[in-house]
Amino acid sequence: MAEWMETHRAVVFPWHCDHIGHMSVRWYAHAFDDAGFHLWLRIGMSHVTMKQRGLATVIASTRTDFLHEANAGELLVVESAFTRLGSKSLNVTQRLTNGETGVLYATNEVVEVFFDLDARTAVVIPDDIRASLEKVLVPPS
């Protein structure tokens, strides 16, 4: 059965914190975005290899739910999973937690669309990529 994959680790530095003392929204987005690149590599693909095929994924929508404050000095871990597979798009769900305590800081849901770089339009997910994604698909929690 497919499982969530660790895709990013970081530390909350003081300059990541906003005027009320906890990590600013922009840094949650930064952690989730970095993790998204590593997720593809974890399944044996990368944005570089897709680009060589004239493909990319583009983000059509993103939603973040903030559940707990992250403070300077705390360790961050992002786990990610492919959670839905459509004909041209897929969902990636991510969880940002405290690396020491396991406290869930935030969740992130992204819809990515497969995109032909030359035609500049959405395309059907290629069969070989779909087959790889089907093997690692995790039911949404």
Q: Which structural traits does this protein have?
A:
3 helices; 141 residues; elongated; alpha+beta
Going by CATH, the architecture would be Roll
Assign a percent range to the helix content: 10-25%
Beta-strand portion reads: 35-45%
Order of helices and strands: EHHEEEEEH
CATH topology: Thiol Ester Dehydrase, Chain A
Radius of gyration: 16 Å
Q: Can you identify the CATH superfamily?
A: Hotdog Thioesterase
How many DSSP E strands?
6
Q: What's the end-to-end separation, in Å?
A: 15 Å
The parts where pLDDT drops under 50 for at least 5 residues are none
Shape: elongated
- Quickly give the structural class: alpha+beta
CATH secondary-structure class: Alpha Beta
| Structural domain tally | 1
Largest sheet: 6 strands, antiparallel
Number of helices: 3
Question: Which whole number gives the mean pLDDT?
Answer: 96
